Amino acid sequence: MKLFRMWSDDKPHEECGVFGIYAAGGRDVAGDIYYGLTALQHRGQESAGMSVSDTLGPMGNITTKKGMGLVSEVFSRRDLKDIKGNIGVGHVRYSTTGGSSIENAQPIAMNYIKGSLALVHNGNIVNAAELKQEQMYRGQAHYTSSDSEVLAYEIISCRVRTSTIEEAVRQAAVRLKGGYALVIMSPRKLIAVRDPLGIKPLVLGKRNDTYIFASESAAISAVGGELIRDVEPGEIITVTGEGIESDRSLCRKARAHCVFEYIYFARNDSVIDGQGVREARFRAGEALASADEVKADIVAGVPDSGLVAAEGYAKASGIPFTLAFHKNSYIGRSFIKPTDEERRMAVHMKLSVFADAVRGKKAVIIDDSIVRGNTMRQLVGMLREAGAAEVHVRISSPPFLYPCYYGTDVPNAGQLIASEHSTDEVCRTIGADSLRYLRIEDLKHMAGGLPVCSACFDGIYPV
Question: How many whole angstroms separate alpha carbon 247 and alpha carbon 281?
């Protein structure tokens, strides 16, 4: 039976978070990977894993540990003591394709004729099926191979024809289409690759003699590192005992950064492509207020990403900001069957309303998105039960109209409420007094002028 997440069933999901580290001085890195993945836990809660090797030890000796659950559930204190090595990669996963099972957990570690490698990735390769067919013909992949395995097989196929692993990665990257961030570990090298449009985020940091790659800068900070810069779209960075090298031969001018990193996915304290996530959400709130004329007593945000947008809305509108919701942070990774009653109880377990803050008030409520509308309908009902006189819903993203093909779990159009219903109809469905979305033209401003991928809102796919 398929399991459903209690709280976030009505939210888009990021597929995963990646982490890679190379400690040139020989320090064991399993603990750093653990804390880095914990900082990326919001990007995936279904499985976690790490692969570690010792660049000073026997060639090809890669140790891999992975399992279903949160980082703290998969790795014990003894694991972190027993997994030895100064180079490693780590992964947290939320399944979009391939389902939720240990077979699809990462890293993918493989031995081959010239050595071994371990690979983690975030995103989706849109031509993976085509690559898999070719690999099956060569006798490599099989029908049930995951996209991660397809990536590994592609690199291995190229490695047989090349003198270095980095050249094999470059040749494989030429064939990949989609949005992706990859970190590949051989027994002696750590290699990071970002898709040429920069759809998926990947950053580079450093701590003394240690280089770190991660999906978000918050993970670098979590292990005491300093953010150096983003991996450039199309760039391949190789770290060895001699230092760091960059290959920009696949870079190009076109960019299409995933705008939903700024709307919802990333942590508030992360910086992605030079833009602070918190500042982007604040600007979204300001933009919402600039196009609004509602008369209200308070502005409140739905935790967590809606809070910062609500602050921006309050500043721009002059309406006081108020905490209207208490979030229970200790629900954890709970799963239940998807009945209507259980979903309703899930929302009540996760959020409760400060009745004194909303009783008798005309309230503007800011959230980051509406997918199916189930959660927002329940939140509006909770506010009314607590005595709110009016509830005006404002969304810090445009309406979802199209699916995503680059590794974000946006449902098909038939499951997107805004695709099937007008704004007024959605407003009536969720029980609000009014409903407004962020305008598409405000997205670039929200992202600090970055060129963004907004295909889930406008249907314009960059790949």
Answer: 33
